[in-house]
Design brief:
The protein is α+β, with helices and mostly antiparallel strands. Helix content is 16%, strand content 41%. The protein has a four-stranded antiparallel beta sheet with strand order 1-2-4-3, with helices on one face. The radius of gyration is 14 Å and the shape is globular. The model has no long low-confidence stretch (mean pLDDT 83).
Amino acid sequence: MPRGTARSPPGEGRISLTWDRAGDRMTLGWHEVGGNGAPDGAVNGYGLDLVAAQVEDHLHGKMATDFSRDGLVFEPSFSLER
C-alpha cells in the first residue's frame, strides 16, 4: 500500500533525492514534500526497518528518520571506506 507522498493525488506531492559526500562519508536523503504527510504517531514500517538494518549491519552506518506533517524524511549515512 502506498504511503506518504506516493498516496497523494497526482501533482500534489514531490520526493527530493539528495546525496552529499564529505570526506569518506556519504549521506543520502529522501525528503517528501507537499503530500499527505505522516499521520500523528507514525513509526517505521517493515520497509524502513529493512533499509535501516542493511545500512547499519552491512554498511556500518546510521539511519535518521523523521515523520513530519510535510512528509517523511529519511537519511542513511555511511562510510565509503571498507
